[in-house]
Amino acid sequence: MSKVWAIIRKDIVTELRTKELFTSMLTFSLLVTVIFSFAFGFSTGLVRLAVPAMLWITFTFAGVLGLSRSFALEKEGNAVLGLLLTPTDRSLIYFGKVIGNTIFVFIVGMIIVPMFVLFFNLGFQGTLLPLVPVIFLGSLGFVAVGTLFSAMAVNTRLREVLLPILLFPIIIPLIVSAVKLSGLVLEGKPLSEGASALQLLIAFDIIFIAACAVVFEFVIEES
Amino acid sequence: MRDSLTDNTYDIKAEGLGKSFGPVEALRGIDLNVESGEFYTLFGPNGAGKTTFIKILSTLAKPSSGKLTIAGHDAVKDPDGVRGVTGVVSHDPFLYENLSAFENIKFFGTMYGVQDADGRAVELIDRVGLGKRMHDLVRNFSRGMKQRLAVARAIVHDPGILLLDEPYTGLDQHGARVFGEMLSMLKSDRRTILMTTHNIEEGLDRSDRVGILAGGRMVYESLREGLDREAFREIYISRVGDA
Predict the structure, then answer these.
(1) Radius of gyration of chain A from its Cα atoms, rounded to whole angstroms
(2) Residues of A in contact with B103 (CB under 8 A)
(3) Within a 10 A sphere around the Cβ of A165, how many other Cβ atoms?
(4) pLDDT tens string A201-218
(5) Chain A residue with minimal CA distance to B157?
(6) Shortest CA gap A22–chain B (Å)
(7) Which H/E stretch holds residue A95?
(8) Taking Cα atoms as reference points, which of A177, A105, A204 lies closest to residue A147?
(9) Model ipTM value
(10) Which of A135, B44, B149, B188 could staple A109 via S-S, CB 3.0–4.6 A?
(11) Inter-chain contact B99–A3, Cβ cutoff 8 Å?
(12) Per-residue model confidence (pLDDT) at position A89
């Protein structure tokens, strides 16, 4: 466990110093939100229906920027090889990277939501608190798959292109569930009304975290 | 004399080691035994397979054929066993640029399972002469300083075997001299050291035994003792040219 924590701590310290992930993700999110709000105008009935989808489109594209940068930092000075030289189970490295990246992506997600509320003038009923577990579960599943593909893409010349091409088809069930649940919350309805979507989101996270942890060893090491 | 030694006296024992990348054979049946406490330098031109060989010895790559034992650990079946007893210094420092010297060595100490990673980091950073820069970010270090810190990273878990892959690359004269002094210090610790280089001057100085790798094959091996520098240069040019 101390090894997982050391990786998380290293990533947090690095991010606090460089602010590369947050700056790129938040700037991108802000720009996309502004463009959406100008394109669609203030909240009308139709736009309101599309807001959850726009929210998750913004969230996932911003997340791809962060994930891409996350492994690029490991490649500077080939530091990742120093990590691979240690007698550390590769799944622990994966879990460390996933937890660190989930923290970053989740925080960005929690900042994007108020931005959408502000720019789309969403006069929602009830509370936004139920969005917290939705964004957390969405972040976790997104990062679980994204961390694997980011490690795979980092050694290629077209990593910025390859990562979204590999990632987005896989996370379609996650996006569909997250959009549905976010829509319910924004309409002031309880999450229990989307129980099947919530179950799918949780199942996605469990299955892909387990599968990616096993596959990560083969992705990160040379054959 | 060396042939009479038992397997247990060898820290590194490679038998028929081969590595292919598709149709390209980077290593072809390498046989190499390095005794405990020995400083072995492997010379070879660019593309000879030196880095591939070090990658296999350090478990960063798997051999396509042959058998490799490091300090009694099978490199394929027990890679973590090998990682626990080896340290690697390459031409890349394998350090995090945005962490300080202390944070780097502490991090790698933790990943190697060192009990007092904080204390060990302070001790080693002092030992490689970077005590005053302990809390400076690595991105602000010179190439020579990074290479010295890379040595601290490589020995943070006190390994018995050091693998050095072209460690002098990119060092200026002063940096090379300081790094050379560090190698002498490591040799005096009675560690087993295998270094690859294409530079005869740097390689011969501290070696107990030397070999030449060319075209993925071992084409020459000799004890350093009694080996004249100029004679070796002639041998090197001739063997590398033939391969």
Answers:
(1) 18
(2) 10, 13
(3) 11
(4) 999 999 999 999 999 988
(5) A86
(6) 16
(7) helix A90-119
(8) A105
(9) 0.90
(10) A135
(11) no
(12) 92
